[in-house]
User: Which sequence fits this backbone?
């Protein structure tokens, strides 16, 4: 079984937000972020999404909170202990 990436989890979160609807301008912004047509907005949205969020490590299963400034979308979802 392969490890999940932050990109996969972020995409799922965006899908849920788009499905929940809201103001039209917000939905349009989310769709643009989802499609990657606004890379700057996507970068900031990813950092906001990951900031303070907890994840389960795909290797050891322990909960951890990554540093938003040190995580890239294509990184595997693993804690610092398992990654190092």
Assistant:
């Amino acid at each position: 079984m392969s490890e999940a990436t932050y990109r996969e989890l972020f995409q799922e979160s965006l899908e849920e937000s788009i499905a929940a609807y809201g103001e039209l301008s917000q939905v349009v912004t989310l769709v643009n972020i989802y499609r990657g047509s606004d890379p700057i907005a996507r970068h900031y949205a990813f950092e906001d999404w990951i900031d303070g969020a907890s994840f389960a490590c795909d290797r050891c299963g322990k909960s951890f909170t990554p540093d938003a400034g040190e995580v890239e979308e294509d990184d595997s979802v693993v804690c610092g202990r398992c990654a190092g």
Summary: The first helix runs from residue 6 to 19. The first strand starts at residue 55 and ends at 56. The chain has four helices and two strands.
